[in-house]
Amino acid sequence: MTRFDLRWPVLAVFAIILITLLYRVPASAWLTLGMGQVLDVLHAPVQQMQSWSLWLEDRGQLQADNERLRLRVQQQAAIVQQARALGEENRQLRELLQITHIEGFHWHVAKVLGRSPDTMSQRLILQTAHASEDDVIVSSEGLVGLVASADQQHAVVRTILDASVSVPVTVPGTALAGLVRGQGDSLEVDFLLREQVPEAGSVLYTSGAGGMFPPGLAVARIVQVETIPGQVFAHVTAAPAAHWQRDNWLAIANRGTVVDE
């Protein structure tokens, strides 16, 4: 029995369908169908470039936003730092007001413009038009030094660390009397009897002897006491009670006419 071959009828059906489509579908539609994939291939690089362009624009915008935020943070940090500095200066001024009650002296404040480059700042420059030679300079913590020279705008201060400055001192409520002298980077206290010398850590104050320094100002804190056999006076080393290296404002005390700034 002969086997019927289905290939030819199937091919005939496909041929009829193809001929029908050729007659029914316009040529422009066939062109569009044929060019669709070609156009997709051609548009792909353009679309990719557009995507990259948008990404770059977004990245540039993000960078610009980050830069604006960074500048804003820096400005805010500067404002905070300035506020802290003003707060510290305000605190110093308030504390300086507490020492101006000492009678016999006239007081006003001056801004610190500069310090000598040595570690302990043995010289200071103040902005003031009302200072005279040998006026007393005080911080909120205690005695700083004396005016070495002054003009109509500035004053140069030699601190108690200077070897030319000697300050009569005592311990309030006692008969102790000594003399603090500058040694460049430390202080020495002379004329303290071995039996009367205070222990390390004690604070010495101006006694007012001689009338140059107002009484009751903290001058020095004793660091070391050494008693030498056969010596009447002890060898005493001290450090300034005031830390003027960090102060922006200092008080000036003089015995002249009251001056309003």
The whole-angstrom Rg is 45 Å
- The tally of structural domains comes to 2
Q: Low-confidence spans: pLDDT under 50, at least 5 residues?
A: 257-261
Largest sheet: 6 strands, antiparallel, barrel
What characteristic shape results from the CA principal axes? rod-shaped
* CATH first level of the largest domain: Mainly Beta
Encode the helix/strand succession as letters: HHEEEEEEEEEEEE
The helix/strand class is alpha+beta
Fraction of residues in helix: 25-40%
Number of strands: 12
For the termini, the CA-CA separation is 134 Å
Provide the CATH topology of the largest domain.
Answer: Thrombin, subunit H
Average pLDDT taken over every residue: 80
| Strand adjacency order, main sheet | 1-2-5-4-3-12
- Beta-strand percentage range: 25-35%
Per CATH, the architecture of the largest domain is: Beta Barrel
Number of helices: 2
CATH superfamily of the largest domain: Rod shape-determining protein MreC, domain 2
What does it look like?
This protein is rod-shaped. The chain contains 2 helices and 12 strands; from the N terminus they run H-H-E-E-E-E-E-E-E-E-E-E-E-E. The chain starts with 6 loop residues before the first helix and ends in a 7-residue tail after the last strand. It folds into 2 domains: 8-97; 104-261, Thrombin, subunit H (Beta Barrel). The strands form 2 sheets. Strands 1-2-5-4-3-12 form a 6-stranded antiparallel barrel. 34% of the residues lie in helices and 27% in strands. With 261 residues, it is of the alpha+beta class.
